[in-house]
Amino acid sequence: MKNWFLTYPNMSRLILAAFLIAAALIGSGFIHIPFVPVGMVLVILVTWLMLRSEGRDLSVLGFDLKGRHLVLIPVGLLLGITSYLLSFYVGALVRGDHIRVSQTIDGTMLLKEFWRVLPTAVVQDFIIVGYCYVKFIQLTNKLIATVAFGLFFIYLHDVWGSNIANDLFYASGLFVGYLMFSTALLRSGSIWLVIGLHWGNNFANSNLFTFTHTPTSWLSLSGQQHNPTVWQVIGLFIALNIGVVSVIAITKLIWRPQN
Does residue 187 contact residue 256 with C-beta atoms inside 8 Å? Predict the structure, then answer.
């Protein structure tokens, strides 16, 4: 076993990290500490331990307290929320729906939901663009690693149901979303930007801009459900991805490629 680790260091570390992260997520289900997102803490701890075993630390992922990295959290949040709002608005235009502005919002629930979304986003981000992603790039290249982890990101969401057309539609959106996250890490050099984007996007689509009215909705839709035409399907595909593609373009304009 020791010889295998010496002969294939990157592959062995990748497999070990994947095993430890899976164990951390399973184990977190048996550990209950009030107000502590145990799964998030354990996944970050596993990442730190794997990096420490190489004489490095979490700064490899830009996960530190440097001002230039911390500022990426609100930047990512703003971009994540705005990108979903753009897709929401274009989708409403394509479907012919009316956008309703909520007159009252449950501020307490909105604040709770804002923080509730964060741990899940962090866990997923450390899985899809964390230590294993970096190791896989070292084993292959950025293109192969990004495609492989993009497909894994789709797998994490369990999109496959009874309607294959809808499933493929949703899966394509997830893959483009992953391209946004991987581009954010590779260009900015910090996972903080990825966390901000993921946090903002998830918070927006589940709480701020919704298809039906909820106590936390800022905007919601009203309109009669109908089968879309071919042109509407094309328009909805554009709407699904326009916000994310815009963020990818902005990211590439602001940050140069990292070595």
Answer: yes
Q: What is each CA distance from 136 to 18, 132, 208, in whole angstroms? A: 11, 6, 36
Parse the chain into domains and list their residue ranges. 64-254
Distance CA 123, CA 44 (A): 8
Provide the terminal-to-terminal Cα distance of the chain, rounded to the nearest Å: 32
Nearest residue to 91 via CA among 219, 212, 237, 224:
237
Question: Which of 152, 119, 156, 117 is CA-nearest to residue 133?
Answer: 152
Are the C-beta atoms of residues 123 and 42 closer than 8 Å to each other? no
Q: Which residues of the chain have pLDDT under 50?
A: none
Query: Do residues 205 and 84 lie in contact, with contact meaning Cβ atoms separated by under 8 Å?
Result: yes
Could you give the count of Cα atoms lying within 13 Å of 111 in the half-sphere of its Cβ?
3
Q: Which DSSP symbol is given to 155?
A: H
Q: pTM score > 0.90 for this model?
A: yes
The tokens of 92 are what?
């409403």
Q: Pairing relation of β-strands 219-222 and 98-101?
A: antiparallel
pLDDT tens string 134-162: 999 999 999 999 999 999 999 998 877 76
Residues sharing a CB contact under 8 Å with residue 236, sequence separation 6 or more, in sequence order: 91, 94, 95, 169, 228
Distance CA 113, CA 71 (A): 22
pLDDT in tens, 219-255: 999 876 667 778 888 899 999 999 999 999 999 999 9
Q: Which two tokens stand for residue 86?
A: 């753009």
User: What kind and span of H or E run contains 60?
Assistant: none
Q: Round the CA-based radius of gyration of the chain to a whole number and report it.
A: 20
